[in-house]
Design brief:
Length: 295
């Protein structure tokens, strides 16, 4: 974890829901956080299907800050004042079904399946296909809006989430939690240019390691492999974002920033720095293949 940061004093509830329905590939189980079940589905799929599901999941969560992840019918479900869409993986396609899709504007013609239905529409994504990110986010926002108006900011509902507090250096204070949801909350709260950088780094990591495990601990997003620990962490400072490779001393070439820990190396990224995406992705893949850091 980044130096000089202690554990959070308290935890908050994240925007995710649990279910007692079937876990991926198994029988009925006690309730688990939906984000964790979706993470598990992505890992089990692997390959292009896992990468595709992880990518569209990130776009859905980016589209609306009120989006909630659920696990229903043995599949991921994203809701915002009602169901927005579901995600299903088949041998040849990853299918995203919008229950009210027939009534939604689709100028980019993303819908290519279930076109004969009176209410539903779907998007089938095959290997090698990529969805138009901007058009897809717009479609998700339209689906959320069709479910009803958002709560007015001047009169928030009881128990509504408070604005994220920024700690020293502008680092967002996010409650300790597993899954993609708290990581996206952290990224959204990163101040100024750092939020765009956070989205860019998160996307590169997911692309390099489909099904990567995520969590926020000690107010830092962590990325790892299930059962093998964490290989990378992010942390905001006043003038830069610090990327920590917990086994960075074993990477080739070694990342430039030294650490008090002989194993850890840092990459500090400032606003005007050019990010070498190919080198970053190579480091991420190498780091994910090594034994990770276990707190």
């Amino acid at each position: 974890m980044p130096e000089g940061k202690g554990k959070p004093k308290a935890e908050r509830t994240t925007r995710t829901s649990a279910t007692k329905l079937t876990k991926p590939g198994g029988a009925a189980q006690p309730a688990e956080p939906a984000a964790r079940l979706i993470d598990q589905r992505i890992r089990e799929l692997g390959g292009w299907r896992g990468e595709t599901l992880a990518r569209v999941r990130a776009l859905i969560l980016e589209a609306d800050p009120e989006m909630t992840e659920q696990w229903k019918w043995n599949n991921p479900v994203w809701s915002c004042r009602g169901i927005v869409c579901t995600g299903e993986a088949y041998k040849q396609v990853v299918k995203l079904t919008f229950p009210r899709g027939a009534s939604l504007p689709d100028p980019s013609r993303l819908f290519n399946s279930s076109l004969e239905g009176k209410t539903r529409r779907a998007i089938d994504l095959r290997e090698g296909e990529a969805v138009d990110a901007a058009a897809f986010r717009a479609l998700v926002r339209a689906a959320a809006a069709a479910n009803g108006p958002a709560a007015k900011a001047a009169r928030p509902a009881a128990g509504a989430a408070k604005p994220v507090k920024l700690l020293s250096g502008g680092n967002p204070q996010i409650a300790k939690a597993d899954g993609d949801t708290p990581v996206q909350a952290y990224i959204a709260a990163m101040p100024g240019w750092k939020s765009d950088l956070g989205k860019r780094l998160d996307g590169l990591i997911v692309k390099a390691v489909p099904g990567v495990c995520k969590a926020v601990k000690w107010n830092s997003p962590l990325y790892g492999i299930e059962g093998r620990g964490w290989f990378l962490g992010l942390h905001c400072f006043t003038k830069y974002v610090k990327v920590a490779f917990f086994r960075g001393a074993s990477l080739k070439p070694v990342p430039p920033g030294a650490s008090k820990d002989a194993n850890t190396r840092y990459l500090d990224i400032r606003e005007d720095d050019e990010l070498d995406e190919a080198q970053f992705a190579a480091w991420v893949k190498q780091a994910a293949a090594l034994p990770g850091w276990v707190p």
